[in-house]
Structures are given as C-alpha cells and as structure tokens.
Amino acid sequence: MELGESFDVAAVREMKEETGLEETAYRILSNFEYEIKYSKHYPKLGFDKEITMKTWLAEILDPDHKIVMSSEHQTFCWVSLEDSIELLKTRSGHLHFIDCFQKCEETVQMM
Length: 111
Known about the structure:
Layout: H1 7-19, E1 26-42, E2 47-60, H2 81-88, H3 94-110
Helix pairs in contact: 2-3
C-alpha cells in the first residue's frame, strides 16, 4: 500500500499493476473478505515487517480478457481449487492461503 492509501484503493491499483485489468473488467463480490497477518524477515535490511494481506473475491466479467502481468511475475494460470492447494503446499505460510481459497470456494458455491 502507498502512504495514505486505503485497502480498497490499493486493491484496485494492484490489480491493474499486476494483471493489466481495469476496474471495469471485474466485479468485486462484496460478501467476501479474508485477512491474513504475518511477519516477513528481511535479513539484508536487518528487520522484520508485519504484513496484513486482505483478499477480496472478484469475478472477471469477460473471461477472454487478456491478462498482462507485471515484471514481478513470470507466469500465471487458471486452476481448480484442488490444483491451487497442491501448488500452494510448496510455499511457506501455505495454510493461510489454502484456508482463504477454500473460503472463496465456499462463498462461490453459496451464490
């Protein structure tokens, strides 16, 4: 987040920066929000940073819309919940993300 930026504004900005999706290309589903808090250690800088990650559930309005990734990422793919869980198991802190994705799926199933 930028200094003085709200979570909502940061989410829209990050979506644009990391995927190329304009705000008109998706719809945020207001009935879902998930928060993860964790600490990240920066050994070269010699400090820890507390991170708060808020996740919203969104629907892409045009499934054929081209995704344009930022230079921070090498690739992306659309995967099922089961495949995302398998991919996440290789990451540290994966249990938080798995729980988040499972709650996303539950919310979608109730719609």
